């Protein structure tokens, strides 16, 4: 009889337990709960980090397990943020408009309300009309559906086009990067209907919750992010543990061989690509209300590459690796760039980390790729004393048994 | 007192003396004859004066008019004679005779009066002057006169211009006079046949001025009519209400100003009237709380109107009906249909030719953009295309080349010399960087292309930040030598800046240089051997390590040179490279990996495509780039291996 899912994947239980402990601790120490050890802005940072961990899991699924180095997943993340941002901004502006029209001598007509909202939102880009893409912005349910549908549809179409014509490897990476670039350039225009480079702002104010303090809102979002991360982890672990997981790992290690075994490689890849895009979009939809603002710069190709950096540093091909990488690098990054790190005085030069952090990150990234392809997650292999196969050549994939370098 | 009387006497004596001469006396006499009109010049009266001066004043008359226009004519209060003046201290003035230009006396500021014609008068003087200037011996003055006519064309200028054509010595001025004469003839010609002929005679002209001058002839105004087009009007076209050219509001406004409809006081005013009439929580019997739709508001307003509490206004249906009942036309201000047809025909032909040249200009633009992409991508065509190494730091090599040029210019102030120095230096610097990178990082990752991508990306962000730390975030100038400034101008439509021609030339040089190296030299042979089959090459005595290193260095070095070229026309910043990296990869992928010609084709395709898309939507280069990338993504669907796909063994597995 087969052992249970959790018995086969002890890391899932450990991870979920750790996540629960973390969430509880943060909750107890938050301002909302009265302890006030952690400031509200720090809780927001933690909540955002959880969202980044979630998208890292998506990236790990698509890259670490399926071998598709997508440099476009932050586009889906951003799109998810835009979709929820539209509702947040529209509803909030509507609240403000209705409030200001409340004392007007005549009750406002629906057209007047719409015009006022349009002027409020699109005044900065010189417009007053509400574009067609904001058609559903009034309805939370519709926008929540769009959070999943729009990035999902984009991933489906793009993936279908790309996989169908057998674009693989680095070509696919470049193509996904081009997609991200195209999307961000498009959103940078003022007439894209999403406020150009101003982006959507004021997202931290949740309509209908105006009475609630930001301390509580941040805590709620932390819980939601933790829940999403836990569920995402569980789902990803379940997906990769079964037969499906074996097939996508096979695709990563030798696509042609899997195809010859009779599997529909393109279908598998498309499924993974689309599902991970949706996970990324959900993460984005949770992230941006905590960040408060979203603009096209968030979607720039560089963001997606950083995502790959996190996963690589954390260790791809293992879900907890992706989470560790995202949390570690993004927190460290905000510590360094936020001026938290002390300057290093070399006598002849003072290293200020706000200037030098990226250099350090870039070089450590090179070091990780060269010397520790398993990333930080590889450390756990030493802990559990995983037996290492003794075969010639270095692993090409992150797992044992993956394709190896052949003697040339 | 005595002194000024003496001066007056002296002046009278001088006048008398001068009267013995010829010409001068005439002008002063002419002026004195028109003294009252000159002193109190007005737009209406000045014409007679000008005619008199033109007739009797000779060339001195023209000079006088110029001075008069410049407010430089002074009148002596004592006797009313006119002079030009010179002064050192603004207290005492040397009086200069209006025709001989000699100093004939001196006067205090109080004894003189400055003539200050108003702007209307100055305008009239100006156009009168044009007649004099058209035949001025000085070509510069004649050109100025032509420009004056272009600015303020007038019926009166037609004859003088035609007369001045005959003995015009300068060919260029004569050509311009001809154009101008034709334009004036079209507008002010004696009869319709003459005007039509003039309009048709201009078909071979292309200049912007011609087009600008012809356009006013097609000026239109809008008229309303109830049935059919207005009689004896030169109708341009019928306007549809609610179309882009005539919004409903504008159409209704026309009806109102033609007094064919009641003015619509507008929703805002109606709302204000409603607010003003709120009494006991209701307006006109309708409770305020119910006034949250336009229909309810209109109903309440109708009640107010009926009670005489508000001005009558129109309802939406009445507005609609009024608009339906009328027709709107665009009518030429020029009454003759033959003339407007001829002008339209001429403009059509001119526009066709302009369109042709625009396509040519666009193609040249596309070509120069293509050569920039080609330069940026050609290094990549070697490292990525031939060796298969994804080098995300390629853009940073371009940046390093540009900064090398900047640093060289800091030390070598001569721009020509510094660019000549910068090119090989940039090559050396990036060649070194490329070799170092290959030795330290890339050679360990030849079997893991995805990780090469990530590792080189790490190098790319490190280099970018390093450049920021060294050179700061602001853009640094890389100045091109003076002989590269300016542009090659073919006509009003087509022009190409020299710098773009130079970049095109540089691109060509590198194309052939690389082709030569790869196809005709020992190194090229070894490079191709190693990339096709390293083990076989090694057993033939080639050192693959060395070849890989040199190839990578070569590709990187070319990126450095591209950096200098790109830095010449774009500002040098640390982000310079990352702006080009995605496009460069696109260029190589679209063109077909492993083939220099493919890169050329890819760059050409992308360059032209981007310019053409920009042409459809010129205000928006961002959209052009978006559409171009989308196009490339779709293009890859149909030719996944690029335009030129390698075949056989060269294609590898």
Please give a structural write-up:
- The complex is a heterodimer of chains A (408) and B (653).
- Chain A has 408 residues and is mainly α.
- Helices cover 65% and strands 2% of the residues of chain A.
- Chain A has one domain.
- In chain A, the strands form 2 sheets. In chain A, strands 1-2 form a two-stranded antiparallel ribbon. Chain A has a two-stranded antiparallel sheet with strand order 3-4.
- Chain A is globular and about 80 Å long.
- The mean pLDDT of chain A is 86.
- In chain B, a hairpin with a 2-residue loop joins β8 (282-283) and β9 (286-287).
- The termini of chain B are far apart.
- Chain B has a 5-stranded antiparallel sheet. A 3-stranded antiparallel sheet of chain B has the order 6-10-7.
- Chain B has 4 domains: 2-122, no CATH class; 135-218; 265-313, no CATH class; 355-651, ABC transporter involved in vitamin B12 uptake, BtuC (Orthogonal Bundle), CATH 1.10.3470.
- Chain B has 26 helices and 12 strands.
- The model of chain B is unreliable at 13-25 (pLDDT under 50).
- The longest helix of chain B has 50 residues, at 337-386.
- With 653 residues, chain B is of the alpha+beta class.
- In chain B, 62% of the residues lie in helices and 8% in strands.
- At the A-B interface, α6, α7, α12 and α14 of A face α13, α19, α24 and α26 of B.
Percentage of residues assigned to helices of chain B: 55-70%
Spatial separation of the terminal alpha carbons of chain A: 44 Å
List the secondary-structure elements of chain A in sequence, H or E: HHHHHHHEHHHHEHHEEHH
Strand order of the largest sheet of chain B: 4-3-2-1-5
Class computed from helices, strands and strand pairing of chain A: mainly alpha
Strand content of chain A: under 5%
CATH class of the largest domain in chain B: Mainly Alpha
Tally of helical segments of chain A: 15
Kindly provide the radius of gyration of chain B, computed on alpha-carbon positions and rounded to a whole number of angstroms.
Answer: 39 Å
Strand order of the largest sheet of chain A: 1-2
CA distance, first residue to last residue of chain B: 113 Å
Largest interface chains and counts: A-B, 55 and 57 residues
Low-confidence blocks of residues of chain A: none
Q: What is the β-strand count of chain A?
A: 4
Number of domains of chain B: 4
The percent of residues in helical segments of chain A reads 55-70%
Q: Which descriptor suits the 3D outline of chain B?
A: extended
């Amino acid at each position: 009889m087969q052992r249970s899912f959790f018995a086969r994947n002890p890391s899932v239980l450990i991870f979920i337990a750790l996540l629960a402990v973390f969430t509880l601790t943060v909750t107890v120490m938050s301002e909302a709960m009265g302890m006030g050890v952690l400031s509200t802005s720090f809780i927001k940072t933690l909540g955002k980090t959880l969202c980044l961990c979630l998208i890292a899991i998506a990236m790990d699924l698509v890259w670490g397990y399926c071998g598709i180095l997508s440099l476009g997943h932050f586009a889906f993340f951003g799109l998810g943020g835009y979709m929820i941002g539209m509702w947040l901004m529209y509803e909030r502006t509507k609240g403000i408009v209705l409030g200001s029209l409340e004392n007007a001598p005549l009750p406002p007509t629906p057209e007047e309300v719409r015009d006022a909202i349009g002027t409020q939102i699109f005044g900065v880009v010189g417009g007053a009309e509400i574009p067609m893409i904001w058609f559903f912005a009034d309805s939370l349910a519709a926008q929540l559906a769009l959070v999943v549908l729009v990035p999902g549809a984009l991933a489906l179409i793009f993936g279908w086009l790309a996989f169908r014509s057998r674009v693989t490897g680095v070509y696919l990476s470049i193509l996904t990067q081009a997609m991200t670039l195209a999307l961000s350039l498009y959103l940078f225009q003022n007439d894209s209907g999403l406020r150009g480079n101003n982006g959507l702002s004021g997202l931290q104010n949740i309509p209908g919750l105006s009475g609630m303090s930001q301390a509580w809102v941040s805590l709620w979002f932390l819980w939601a992010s933790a829940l999403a991360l836990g569920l995402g982890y569980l789902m990803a672990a379940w997906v990769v543990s079964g037969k499906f997981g074996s097939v996508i790992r096979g695709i990563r290690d030798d696509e042609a061989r899997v195809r010859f075994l009779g599997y529909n490689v393109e279908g598998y890849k498309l499924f993974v690509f689309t599902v991970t895009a949706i996970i990324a979009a959900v993460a984005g939809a949770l992230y941006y209300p905590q960040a408060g603002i979203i603009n096209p710069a968030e979607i720039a190709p560089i963001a997606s590459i950083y995502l790959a950096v996190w996963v690589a540093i954390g260790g791809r091909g293992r879900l907890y690796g992706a989470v560790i990488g995202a949390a570690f690098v993004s927190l460290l990054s905000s510590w360094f760039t936020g001026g938290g790190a002390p300057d290093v005085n070399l006598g002849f030069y003072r290293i200020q980390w706000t200037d030098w952090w990226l250099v350090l990150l870039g070089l450590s990234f090179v070091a990780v790729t060269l010397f520790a392809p398993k990333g930080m997650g590889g450390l756990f292999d030493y802990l559990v004393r995983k037996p290492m196969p003794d075969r010639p050549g270095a692993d090409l994939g992150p797992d044992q048994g993956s394709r190896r370098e052949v003697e040339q | 007192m005595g002194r000024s009387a003496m001066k007056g006497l002296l002046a009278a004596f001088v006048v008398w003396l001068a009267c013995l001469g010829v010409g001068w006396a005439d002008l002063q006499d002419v002026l004195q004859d028109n003294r009252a009109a000159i002193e109190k010049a007005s737009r209406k009266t000045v014409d007679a004066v000008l005619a008199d001066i033109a007739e009797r004043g000779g060339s001195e008359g023209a000079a006088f008019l110029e001075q008069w226009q410049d407010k430089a004519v002074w009148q002596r209060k004592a006797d009313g004679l006119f002079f030009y003046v010179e002064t050192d201290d603004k207290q005492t003035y040397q009086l200069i005779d209006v025709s001989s230009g000699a100093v004939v006396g001196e006067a205090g500021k109080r004894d003189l009066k400055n003539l200050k014609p108003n702007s209307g008068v100055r305008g009239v003087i100006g156009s009168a002057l044009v007649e004099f200037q058209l035949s001025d011996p000085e070509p510069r003055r004649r050109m100025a006169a032509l420009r004056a006519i272009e600015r303020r064309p007038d019926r009166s200028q037609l004859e003088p211009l035609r007369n001045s054509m005959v003995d015009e010595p300068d060919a260029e001025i004569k050509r311009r006079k001809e154009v101008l004469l034709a334009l004036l003839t079209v507008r002010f010609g004696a009869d319709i046949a003459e005007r039509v002929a003039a309009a048709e005679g201009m078909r071979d002209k292309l200049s912007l001025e011609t087009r600008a001058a012809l356009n006013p002839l097609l000026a239109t105004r809008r008229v309303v009519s109830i049935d059919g087009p207005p009689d004896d009007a030169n109708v341009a076209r019928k306007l549809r209400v609610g179309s882009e050219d005539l919004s409903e509001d504008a159409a209704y406004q026309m009806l109102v100003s033609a007094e064919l409809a009641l003015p619509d006081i507008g929703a805002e005013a109606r709302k204000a009237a409603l607010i003003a009439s709120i009494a006991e929580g209701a307006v006109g019997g309708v409770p305020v709380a119910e006034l949250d739709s336009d229909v309810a508001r209109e109903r309440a307003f109708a009640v107010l109107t009926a009670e005489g509490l508000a001005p009558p206004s129109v309802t939406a249906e009445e507005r609609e009906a009024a608009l339906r009942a009328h027709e709107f036309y665009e009518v030429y201000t020029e009454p003759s249909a033959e003339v407007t047809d001829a002008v339209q025909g001429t403009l059509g032909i001119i526009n066709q030719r302009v369109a042709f040249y625009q396509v040519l200009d666009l193609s040249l633009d596309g070509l120069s953009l293509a050569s920039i992409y080609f330069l940026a991508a050609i290094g990549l065509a070697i490292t990525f295309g031939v060796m298969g190494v994804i080098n995300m730091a390629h853009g940073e090599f371009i940046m390093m080349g540009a900064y090398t040029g900047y640093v060289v210019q800091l030390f070598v102030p001569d721009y020509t010399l510094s660019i000549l120095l910068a090119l090989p230096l940039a090559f050396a610097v990036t060649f070194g960087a490329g070799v170092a990178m290959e030795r330290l990082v890339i050679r360990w990752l030849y079997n893991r292309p995805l990780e090469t991508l990530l590792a080189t990306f790490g190098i790319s962000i490190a280099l970018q930040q390093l450049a920021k730390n060294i050179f700061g975030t602001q853009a640094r100038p890389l100045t091109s030598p003076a002989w590269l400034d300016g542009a090659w101008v073919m006509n009003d439509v087509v022009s190409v800046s020299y710098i773009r021609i130079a970049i095109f030339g540089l691109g060509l040089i590198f194309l052939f240089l690389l082709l030569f190296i790869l196809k005709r030299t020992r190194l090229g042979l070894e490079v191709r051997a190693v990339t096709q089959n390293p083990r076989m090459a090694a057993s033939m005595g080639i050192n693959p390590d060395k070849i890989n290193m040199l190839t990578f260095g070569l590709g990187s070095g070319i990126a450095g040179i591209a950096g200098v070229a790109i830095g010449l026309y774009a500002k040098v910043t640390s982000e310079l490279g990352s702006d080009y990296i995605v496009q460069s990869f696109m260029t190589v992928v679209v063109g077909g990996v492993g083939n220099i010609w493919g890169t050329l084709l890819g760059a050409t395709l992308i360059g032209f495509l981007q310019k053409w898309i920009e042409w459809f939507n010129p205000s928006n280069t961002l959209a052009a780039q978006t559409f171009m990338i989308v196009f490339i993504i779709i293009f890859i669907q149909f030719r996944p291996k690029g335009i030129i796909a390698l075949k056989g063994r060269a294609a590898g597995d």
